[in-house]
Design brief:
Chain B: It comes from Nocardiopsis coralli. Chain B: This is ABC transporter permease. Chain B: Keywords: Cell membrane, Membrane, Transmembrane, Transmembrane helix, Transport. The complex is a heterodimer of chains A (about 300) and B (about 300). Chain A is mainly alpha-helical. Chain A contains eleven helices and no strands. Chain A has two domains: about 70 residues, no CATH class; about 220 residues, Orthogonal Bundle (MetI-like fold), CATH 1.10.3720.10. The longest helix of chain A has about 40 residues. Chain A is flat and about 85 Å long. The relative contact order of chain A is 0.13. In chain B, helix 10 runs antiparallel to helix 12. The chains are: A mainly alpha (about 300), B mainly alpha (about 300).
């Protein structure tokens, strides 16, 4: 187990370096003068341009820039943005908000998606099953930004139930609707996956054996069936953590939430690339760790899986 | 029994997966409904003038944001352009992006997946790791970074170049998913007896990859690809909405929704019509993808 963990973490290192380098190359090759429009209508003073060039080493070869950047990053120094704000501070402010948003979305996915999927898998071709099928079809057809805009208009503007724009503190209550918006697509996929998995396992020999042994139905379903059906469901939830961060870019934009997604979007749009590499690296790191955690959960659910 | 046998022996070709899948599809109303809808949208994309004779670029500023009427079914937008004409003409961008991106992604992903499975070793490691990097990067974020990078080249570029750029971006970020599916499908038959036999008979790498591995990869990749069209159409609209995908003067639903967004309180119809068309298109492709998956993957039925 320990060796397995170590090996997986070591394998993640080249992926992380590959990611940072790839993004770094793309991002710092942004065409256009990064200082255009930085200083109002007039051109930036030479002193400012020089100071920036020195900090980001924009005039040196790419590889030197990158090496310098990584060395600083490993020491926890992510530099300043073009507006002289430390990148670390910006991330520290935005990260908890995005995390809260992701947790709300995750809770919605698990509660609604898994429960609806399991129930419709148990009662195939019932009214409830058909209702879930039509709902998932609709949920998959409505793009996230359309749903976000629509709910914002309906609940926020027309009915006045929620505030159309989330405040700076971004409390849990304010994040419920944006969280649901982010989670909708995955909830539908999750419900469908849970339904087919349950329906498939319901025909498995071990379920028949358990029923034949005279086990009460709640034990057959709750212990045997559910536990064996969890692996694909947990895989999907793990892979989806990345999607939650993405939904963040669109949904945070619509509801005006000051999270990581909005942070990156704002800065890319202003041709300020300082924030992009660290945040993208953070996302990839979360993705890799989530996959690792998912693989470790497999072992808990299915004792046949061994880590060598 | 003897009748049945006689019937089987008279048919010249053995029934395969594709015949079964077609039989299954034929009997499903959802397949026909979605096909008709998709054909309608493709017709709209190819020949928009069949549906409207109004030029989507003609603007009459004095009639800005006029409500829907008999003359202008969907009303007029902020610049006084006919929303019906713009919605019809907007189909082209979505359909082209959805179909082209899916085609290129499945071809590249499928090819790289088969190569990774067949070659193994460092080629497999390289393709898989590269895929992992691209998949770890959130889709929309990656697309925003790539598209803004080329935004300079995009200004003043023709619609064809802009659409190519969006298709290229979607492909670049999505091929690893297809490659992963193709790789595992090809890998599962790589050591099968018939492949070994073909190798023993002197079949070259190309023959093994395309005659023996490819047919096994087709079904899972087609299943995935058919659902991917919907994802790409939705992604194109999302990126255009964010202002990094297609942009005016290209007529597209995403652009229209983005432009109308600021006036949602005064003129809801401006948002409603392109949104409805977008959602119905995505819905049609999701339903078609569902039907194809059910037909090709009987295990999930």
């Amino acid at each position: 187990m320990g060796r397995y963990l170590l090996r997986r973490l070591l394998q993640a290192v080249p992926v992380l370096f590959g990611t940072t380098f790839l993004i770094y190359v793309v991002v710092w090759q942004l065409p256009g003068d990064p200082f255009a429009g930085r200083c109002g209508d007039r051109a930036c003073p030479d002193a400012f341009v020089n100071a920036m060039n020195e900090q980001f080493r924009l005039d040196e070869p790419l590889l030197v820039q990158y090496g310098h950047y990584i060395a600083n990053m490993l020491q926890g120094d992510l530099g300043l943005t073009y507006n002289m704000v430390p990148v670390t501070d910006l991330i520290a402010q935005a990260a908890p908000i995005t995390l809260r948003l992701a947790l709300v979305a995750l809770a919605f996915e698990i509660v609604i998606g898994v429960v609806a999927g399991v129930l419709s898998g148990l009662r195939r071709n019932s009214f409830f099953d058909n209702l879930v099928f039509v709902s998932t079809l609709l949920a998959l057809s409505i793009p996230t930004f359309v749903l976000g805009r629509f709910l914002q208009w309906l609940l926020g503007v027309q009915w006045g139930i929620i505030t159309p724009s989330v405040s700076g503190e971004a409390t849990w209550g304010e994040l419920i609707v944006p969280g649901i918006v982010i989670a909708t697509t995955t909830t539908a996929i999750l419900a469908r996956l849970a339904r087919t998995t349950i329906a498939e396992n319901l025909r498995a020999d071990y379920v028949r054996t358990a029923i034949a042994k005279g086990m009460p139905p709640h034990r057959v379903i709750g212990v045997h069936l559910l536990r064996n059906s969890m692996i694909p469901i947990i895989t999907l939830i793990g892979l989806d953590l990345g999607t939650l961060m993405v939904g963040a870019v669109v949904t945070e934009g619509i509801f005006n939430i000051n999270g990581l997604g909005g942070l990156v979007y704002d800065h890319v749009m202003r041709l300020d690339s300082t924030v992009v590499v660290p945040v993208a690296t953070l996302f990839v790191l979360i993705y890799i760790l989530a996959n690792l955690v998912v693989d470790l959960i497999y072992g808990l659910l299915d004792p046949r899986i061994r880590y060598e | 029994m003897s009748e049945q046998l006689a019937q089987v022996s008279t048919s010249t070709r053995p029934r395969g997966l594709w015949d079964d899948a077609w039989d299954e599809l034929k009997g499903r109303p959802i397949f026909w409904i979605s096909s008709v809808l998709i054909l309608l949208f493709i017709l709209m994309a190819a020949f928009p003038t069949l549906f409207t004779r109004v030029d989507p670029h003609v603007a009459d500023l004095s009639r800005s944001m006029e409500e829907p009427s008999a003359e202008h079914w969907f009303g007029l937008d902020r610049q006084g352009r006919d929303v019906f004409a713009r919605t019809i003409h907007g189909a082209r961008a979505s359909i082209i992006v959805g179909l082209a991106a899916t085609l290129v992604t499945t071809l590249i992903g499928g090819l790289l997946g088969i190569l990774a499975a067949y070659l193994g070793g460092w080629a497999d490691t390289l393709i898989s790791r590269l895929g992992e990097i691209l998949l770890g990067l959130p889709f929309v974020l990656g697309a925003i970074i790539i598209l803004t990078t080329f935004a300079g080249a995009q200004s003043g570029a023709g619609p064809a170049l802009v659409i190519t750029l969006v298709v290229g971006t979607l492909t670049l970020l999505s091929w690893p998913l297809v490659a992963r599916i193709a790789r595992s499908a090809a890998y599962s038959v790589k050591h099968a007896d018939y492949v070994q036999a073909a190798r023993a008979l002197g079949a070259g790498p190309f023959r093994i990859m395309f005659r023996h591995l490819l047919p096994n990869v087709m079904a899972p990749v087609i299943v995935y690809g058919s659902l991917m069209v919907a994802t790409f159409i939705s992604a194109e609209a999302t990126l255009s909405f964010l202002g990094v995908g297609l942009r005016p003067p290209v007529v597209s639903w995403g652009v229209a929704i983005s432009e109308a967004g600021d006036y949602i309180r005064q003129a809801f119809f401006l948002t409603a019509f392109p949104t409805a068309f977008l959602c119905v298109t995505v819905l049609a492709f999701v339903m078609l993808g569902d039907a194809i998956r059910d037909a090709l993957d009987p295990k999930l039925r």
